[in-house]
Amino acid sequence: MRIMSPLIAVLALVLVALVTAQVPGGQALLGIILPYLAFALFLGGVVYRVQHWAKSPVPFRIPTTCGQANSLPWIKQNKLDCPSTKAGVIGRMLLEVLLFRSLFRNTKAEIYEGPKLVYGSSKFLWLFALLFHYCFLVIILRHLRLFMDPIPGFVAALEFGDGFFQIGLPVFYQTDAIFLGALAFLFLRRVLLTNIRYISLPADYFPLFLISGIAITGILMRYFLRVDVVAIKQLTHGLATFSPAITGQIGSIFFVHIFLVCALLIYLPFSKLMHMAGVFMSPTRNMMNNSRMVRHINPWNDPKIKPHSYASYEDEFREFMVGADIPVEKELPAQPAEEEVAKAVE
Amino acid sequence: MYGKGRIIPALILFLGLMTTPMWYKSGDAGKMPKPEKPKDYTECVAPTAYMRTSHMVLLNEWRDDILREGGSRVGKTANGTEYVRSLQNGCMKCHNDKKKFCDACHNYTSVKPYCWDCHLQPKEAM
After folding, report:
1. Which of A173, A249, B80, B95 could form a disulfide with B101 if both were Cys (CB 3.0 to 4.6 A apart)?
2. Are A265 and A317 in the same domain?
3. Burial A203-214, CB ≥16 within 10 A → b, else e
């Protein structure tokens, strides 16, 4: 059921788009109004989520320490996995964002007879996650050809590299195949590994199905059903220049594609896909481990509350402590003898 | 909000990158390509809608049929006009200006067909 409900949701989205594209005015709704709405929600949603996260104070250093911390001079520090300087943090973040270093450290645990617990390295998740994200990036950048005029040079370079093998016409893009393969891996991993299946929720399957739907409709549109690209560019370039118009004949498959993309844009800021921004804001990754060098003061401490040392605490409560037989560091001052008190009274 | 000094510039950078097509040399959407149609002929080898979306598939089919299957060089349109199934001697006979016909849409949509890696453009042939 945790797989079926997101699958049904995505299929329902496809069906909605197919029906709406046939209704008069539906194409303008799917092609013009919805993309603007989705894009605004995407930008607004991301900004909202980020500023919301930024409201949480992180007064103390909580980086995950994955290596030797800065210590005595003769102990070698692991500068990337337990950085104590800004440069170290930048290096760590760059490796994390660009190369998914924390996934590279992924391990698997297996139990053998004995019982014997064995840990081993597991690099496939890292490899396919990296392929998935970079293919997605290339595919998104390639789409700039539909939104810009003149088209920037790097887009043409990407298209050339991506279609390097010149297979078929329209030229086959390698990223399309790698992207689908990586998606299949990420999906099968959740289905076939029992421990991963156990912790997988609809929120894990839905983005996989939705992105697969986008990829499949895109591939259908390019290689199999084929659409009038000039008519589509008129619409998409019109969206970018705020003068959208649908004049030519555009196949329904385009409207399914753009509808699913809009669904993804709207879904993204409010889902786990926000790791896109979250990775930059993880205090466990972006903080220096310098607690032993710098005193970090809680920024929301009340300045009226002064530090209260134990010595002054004991000064304040010594009598009561002695009265309650609690040991004290400094005894009460010696009591004047009773005779002297009597004399004083006289 | 904490970390304003880093988060606000980062958000501005994000918004700027995401909206690049809206502000960077985005040009004029009304500037549609107008491929020049031949004056002497009114009928193409297949309906316009098909040619618009699938002309490249047709060219590939011709190549496979003629070069690999020994198919005929001669084709017939729906109205019975005979034509040569060939890029250089067929298509370019009517659409004789590559710059005004092919390139108009291909440049607009950043498509760089590799036809001309081997084939000669009409002008060069003359």
Report:
1. B95
2. no
3. ebbbbbbbbbbb
How many domains are there within chain A? 2
Closest Cα in chain B, distance from residue A230 (Å): 7
Residue A304 lies in a domain: no
Which structural domain, as residue segments, surrounds residue A340? Answer: 310-345
What CATH number does the domain containing A251 carry? 1.20.950.20
My answer on whether A245 and A318 are in the same domain is no
Asked if residue A297 belongs to a domain, the reply is no
- Of the partner residues A55, A237, A299, the one whose CB lies closest to the CB of residue B29: A237
Residues of B in contact with A162 (CB under 8 A): none
pLDDT digits (tens, 9 = 90+) for A59-107: 889 999 999 999 999 999 999 999 999 999 999 999 999 999 999 988 8
Q: Kindly list the residues from chain A whose CB atom is less than 8 angstroms away from the CB atom of residue B110.
A: 145, 151, 155-156, 159
Span A9-66, pLDDT tens digits: 999 999 999 999 998 888 999 999 999 999 999 999 999 999 999 998 888 899 999 9
Q: Is the dihedral of CA B48, B50, B54, B58 positive or negative?
A: negative
Same domain (yes/no): A281, A321: no
Show which residues on chain B lie within 8 Å of chain A, measured between beta carbons: 1-4, 7, 10-11, 14-15, 18-22, 24-33, 49, 52-54, 56-57, 59-60, 105, 108-114
Cis peptide leading into residue A115 (ω within 30°) = yes
Q: Give A134's contacts (C-beta < 8 A, 6+ positions apart).
A: none
Domain membership flag for residue A145: yes
User: How many beta carbons lie within 10 A of that of residue A63, not counting itself?
Assistant: 22
Q: What is the CA radius of gyration of chain A?
A: 31
Residues A267, A317, single domain; the answer is: no
